[in-house]
Amino acid sequence: MLRQANYCIFELISAIYNLHLNVVSGFFIMNLMQQKIFLNTSMSQKPLKKFKVDESFEPCPVMDGNELCPNGIFVFNITKMKEFINSRPDLFVPEDIDVKGEYSYFISVNEKHIPNVELSEPVILAEIAPNRFNLIDGRHRMEKARRMGIEKIKAYKVNAIYLPDFIVIKKGYLAFVDYWNNKLKTYNKYLIKIGKK
Known about the structure:
- Helix 1 runs parallel beside helix 4 (170-193).
- The strands form 2 sheets. The chain has a 4-stranded mixed beta sheet with strand order 3-6-4-5. A two-stranded antiparallel ribbon has the order 1-2.
- The chain is globular.
- It has helices spanning 2-35, 78-87, 139-148, 170-193; strands at 68-71, 74-77, 95-98, 123-129, 132-137, 152-158.
- Helices cover 40% and strands 16% of the residues.
């Protein structure tokens, strides 16, 4: 039942995505220029590459009780992602992010849930576009920290190359590949424009 609901949400948002892809790409490069974002040179950053569609792709399985996160047109299995992160401390090291930064604004939160969240658990940021990370797990922790006046919170950053393994719908995977490749083309144009490539 949950997967069917997520699929319906995906179909609706996918239609909006296909209609506005060019507009979004324009906003993306404008945002890059305004914030002066350059190549991430941290050790955890992988080279930014174009995705090729894997014809043998299998969606991430969803078990009862798994936590899912619909991030735009993509639905991630957060439970499986957390298991992977915890199994690879060599790849994922929590880092400090600003609570009042770009990840701190949300449409809504469950007020009853906020008092019970543990701020010690790192939030998760996913690289949805080149060097652009979205908060996909921990919005209640971020909001609680903001209300408490805390300036920094720990976060795991998951690079794009790992994300397909946690997408639960095949159409979502295909859309992600298309979305990433379009954003990468825009990003490379930006790097050429500022003389970084």
